[in-house]
Amino acid sequence: MNKIRIIDFGDVNWLDSQAIYHAVAHTFNEETPDTLTIMSPIQTYACIGYFQDLKKEIDTEFCLQNNIPVIRREVGGGAVLLDRDQLFFHFIFNKDKLTRDINKLYSMFLEPAINTYNRLGIKAYHRPINDIQVESRKIGGTGAVEIGGAMVVVGSFMFDFNYELMVKILKIPTEKFRDKLYQNVKDYITNIKRESGYLNIPIPSRDEVKSIFFDEVGKKFSAFMDISGSLDDNEQKKLKEMRIKLTGSEWLDKKGKFLDRKVKVSSGVYIYEGNFKSPGGLIRATFTVKDNDIADIDISGDFTLMPQESLTEIENAIRGLIDYNLMALRLKAVYERFEIRSPGVVPEDFVSAIKNVLEKPVS
């Protein structure tokens, strides 16, 4: 029978909540047992993905003023707020014994968490590639990375979430973008406390969640769960090294190779802000893309539009699609129907404000 070493660290400092699983992965070899670590950070902190640019993603001044540490992980993905209300789990398994298919990999490792939610009465499901959702709401983040001989799959059980603080730690181009991001985060990211309230069921304890989760992991991998596991000497030594590396300025400030300007809220849900300088003035479009359609949009700028209330009709014409040609046709029809006058601005300019950011090459 397979054996999985479980190391339950309980509450740890913010640095060790990242450094521990990195240490296990970097020292992983053929003798290392497949390992599951689980823990919660005592402090609130911000964490950026491997490919991100710190200064373009995080409001470092705000974090400094509010004593919020910032760290970069080796796992990809976006910037996140992490705190005591989240229970992290990290699978660190022998990568040579696992599928190379990333979709199958996520399906395999997320199943125990999904089954845990369902046993708690929260109807969760896997939305590829790597989201766990309840209805259309994301509940907890996940990610994966190969480190040395290990495949690392990380995730969390989110008992509650500080939506307001999450938006404040991010580097946001405008207040309108921040407001829209806040609303979308609240709409599309959920947590155990919120879902339990919807269902009128008790909020489970951490021990209950852990117990069910360990049981589901054992069943999924047909494994003996060694809950008395601990770090060995090599891992302890590497942990000390990782604490230094992850807090070093060279590591934290390194430039991401693949900066993605959009903000991901959940699978299929992104927020953008695009600008277009037309002859009649600057057009700024702040919009939400959900499942490849524009679900919501706010347009602002220093252009002139008459009648003023026709801006709402322009926004309504754009919602529900992402086809540029159809968008332009709809806008032309709105211009004719409401006899819109916009000196130096034509319907296609609003399309360009959206197209510019959606098709902007990744830098």
Write the SSE topology.
Layout: E1 2-12, H1 16-26, E2 34-41, E3 45-48, H2 54-57, H3 60-65, E4 70-72, E5 80-82, E6 86-94, H4 102-119, E7 124-127, E8 131-134, E9 137-138, E10 143-147, E11 150-158, H5 163-169, H6 175-188, H7 192-199, H8 206-220, E12 223-226, H9 233-247, H10 249-252, E13 263-266, E14 269-278, E15 281-290, E16 293-301, H11 310-318, H12 324-337, H13 347-358
Parallel strand pairs: 1-2, 1-12, 3-4
Antiparallel strand pairs: 2-6, 3-5, 6-11, 7-8, 8-9, 10-11, 13-14, 14-15, 15-16
Helix pairs in contact: 1-9, 4-8, 5-6, 11-12, 12-13
Q: Give the overall average pLDDT.
A: 91
Number of domains: 2
Count the DSSP helices.
13
CA-based shape:
elongated
Radius of gyration: 23 Å
CATH H-level superfamily of the largest domain: Bira Bifunctional Protein, Domain 2
| Annotated CATH architecture of the largest domain | 2-Layer Sandwich
| CATH topology grouping of the largest domain | BirA Bifunctional Protein, domain 2
Report the major sheet.
Answer: 6 strands, mixed
Order of helices and strands: EHEEHHEEEHEEEEEHHHHEHHEEEEHHH
Total beta strand runs: 16
Low-pLDDT regions: 256-260
The amount of beta strand, in percent, is 25-35%
At the first level of CATH, the class of the largest domain is Alpha Beta
Structural class: alpha+beta
